[in-house]
Design a protein that fits this description.
Number of strands: 16
Number of domains: 2
Oligomer: single chain
Distance between the termini: 25 Å
Radius of gyration: 22 Å
CATH superfamily of the largest domain: Aldolase class I
């Protein structure tokens, strides 16, 4: 048996050759699936972002992990294979949140995490008795190490991705992660994580713990960080803001080699934070006090903001941009809220009749960066323009150099170099991603539904 693993791109303009550089990290889902395939089964991997897919190459089964942004392209790829008589299975976030939709384009759908389901699925296909749907009844313990040998023929960003935990205990209303994991948080054994770090670490490369919220279970996070201290690695991850009020955690993060964290700041408006169930962002002095605590421990912050909640105004969003500049964020994301299917936000906007598309991720008229709903305080076009303006200003050369001059960046020449390289990449990527279609505009086929 031969299994083909595919990572789909978000989209491609007609005639487009390259892809968004900052989106070229190693994809973890196909490497995890590769590790779950029995050794006697052949496998190959194609990354749609970086190479052409050889649809006519012989294979017995195709497996695709689908996110909402990549759903349309995944269905295009599936249609090509299914026209050739090759069965296609799909899993991932979108398959779990929209299984009925995904089932229209796949021979089998995996609902939930793959560790407990994919080996069974492979056995069923080898026996000729596949099911239409495989649903996980519990959370796996994540004992599999991703098979990174599938990455060998592609050049990804020089960051090594490792997973310690999945999920988050918070229930932010816009977040697909809390919908997928139902606000739960599970961990791998620390010894397994250490073995993986030893296998993947390279001189001069950062370790990125891809956890949705590495500090969601503080005790486990501290246990991990204590074991990291002797390794002398440099690492980054994602964390909720409340870790800023735990001095022991901040100290352990610093001592274990943490260089910075992505923090969902989301908004500086208390009413917006209440609406998204993130009022805890304002505790103990709010974002400014949190930033001071992070900087005190030498931790840089990648701050993310979402614009478009009902209490937003153009003036307030521009004030947020000024705040991000003055706080010298290492990186900043200024995105409109995206109503992902399966989230409370999507259900609320749908109930209020404010969605502009039944399924924006499949609509021929939708483009990346456009607003798929009616904001309360401005037009969709004005909201999109303000988001684009914020990115262009934040990643303009004067703003980059002003932020670079902050002592938190100057204190470490190696991290200052990383700051300049990463911000320059964002500077050039802004217009590359804006207006990108969902799916491949050069693809002229029709989506083939399962009958």
């Amino acid at each position: 048996m031969h299994v083909t693993l595919i990572h789909p791109r978000v989209g491609r303009r007609a005639g487009q050759k390259g892809y968004v550089r900052t989106w070229k990290m190693e994809p973890m889902p196909p490497a995890t699936l590769a590790a779950l395939i029995p050794s006697e089964v052949e496998r190959c991997f194609f990354d749609d972002r970086m190479e052409a897919i050889p649809f006519d190459a012989p294979t017995d089964l195709v497996a695709i992990s689908v996110e909402t942004y990549t759903a349309k392209r995944a269905y295009q790829i599936a249609s090509e294979y299914r026209r050739r008589g090759v069965p296609v299975v799909m899993g991932g976030f979108h398959a779990t949140l929209c299984p009925d939709e995904v089932e229209r384009y796949a021979d089998s759908v995996v609902v939930g995490e793959a560790e407990l389901l994919f080996p069974e699925l492979i056995d069923d296909y080898r026996a000729g008795t596949p099911k239409r749907r495989y649903t996980s009844a519990s959370r796996p313990t994540h004992k599999v190490r991703p098979d990174r040998s599938i990455y060998a023929h592609n050049r990804y960003l020089p960051v090594r991705l490792v997973e310690f935990a999945r999920g988050c205990r918070f229930s932010c209303d816009f977040c697909a992660i809390q919908s997928f994991y139902k606000s739960t948080h599970t961990h791998r054994d620390i010894d397994q994580v250490l073995e993986e770090i030893a296998a993947v670490r390279r001189m001069g490369q950062m370790i990125f713990f891809v956890d949705d919220n590495i500090n969601s279970s503080p005790g486990k996070a501290k246990e991990l960080m204590r074991t990291l201290i002797p390794l002398k690695i440099r690492w980054v991850s994602q964390s909720s803001i409340n870790v800023a009020w735990d001095k022991e955690s901040l100290d352990l993060m610093r001592r274990s080699g943490c260089q910075g964290v992505l923090v969902g700041l989301e908004s500086l408006n208390p009413d917006n934070l209440d609406a998204m169930d993130k009022g805890f962002n304002l505790m103990k002095g709010g974002p400014s006090a949190a930033m001071a605590a992070f900087r005190e421990h030498g931790l840089r912050v990648y701050g993310t903001f979402v614009f478009g909640y009902d209490h937003d105004s153009p003036e307030g969003m521009r004030s947020t941009l000024d705040w991000a500049r003055d706080e010298a964020l290492f990186i900043g994301a200024f995105n409109h809220i995206t109503p992902f299917p399966g989230t409370p936000l999507f259900a609320r906007l749908q109930e209020e009749g404010r969605l502009l598309y039944d399924a924006w991720w499949l609509d021929e008229g939708y483009r990346y960066g456009e607003i798929p709903f009616r904001p309360a305080g401005m037009s969709p076009e004005d909201l999109a323009d303000i988001c684009a303006e914020a990115r262009r200003v934040f990643y303009s050369w004067p703003h980059i150099f002003r932020r670079a001059a902050h002592r938190v960046h100057l204190r470490d020449p190696w991290m200052l170099l990383n700051f300049l390289v990463i911000n320059a990449m964002h500077h050039f990527d802004i217009d590359t991603r804006m207006g990108m279609p969902m799916g491949d505009e050069d693809w002229k086929g029709e989506l083939l539904e399962v009958t």
